[in-house]
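#dry-run=false #mode=assembly
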Amino acid sequence: EPEVTQTPSHQVTQMGQEVILRCVPISNHLYFYWYRQILGQKVEFLVSFYNNEISEKSEIFDDQFSVERPDGSNFTLKIRSTKLEDSAMYFCASSVGTGGQPQHFGDGTRLSIL
Amino acid sequence: QKEVEQDPGPLSVPEGAIVSLNCTYSNSAFQYFMWYRQYSRKGPELLMYTYSSGNKEDGRFTAQVDKSSKYISLFIRDSQPSDSATYLCAIESNYQLIWGAGTKLIIKP
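#status=ok
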């Protein structure tokens, strides 16, 4: 069964550094998403992406964050000037469409900011 | 008022029991409802999705939506130790999923 893959599984970065999280969505999916889950808290939406544009973003997704689909298979989340509070699990998801089309998730990247 | 509320548990039941997991939501405009299962150190895994009131069944799992009460449920029949996980309800709105807190379920052998 096709799946969403994320790399790396664990990323350790010094505060203030830039980090890029990578995702390969399911190949025929058109919508891509990033979510994060701080330890012990709810899953939170960051951004959705369709047709090379951001469709929706949350208040969390400020100028520190950016997304890109650099080629036909990868979808990346860049976090500039990382802060301690950016430490979380980051999940990538993809879907065929919206309006009830389910989102399928990768196993996440655990980001630890030191 | 939080958009989606879910009791975090933990909920501990003996093997073979019927499990009932529930969420309430605040916005009557919500239409698309999903249940995910999450094992430790893994991503959310889709279990069920539905967009209408009523029941949807898949094997041992039944998803139920009551739009008049703004209440969604997931029932697990003949629960197994391998069902031990965190179960999250999620509602699609405006290109995003809005999540419950997740209920930690423990099935005791």
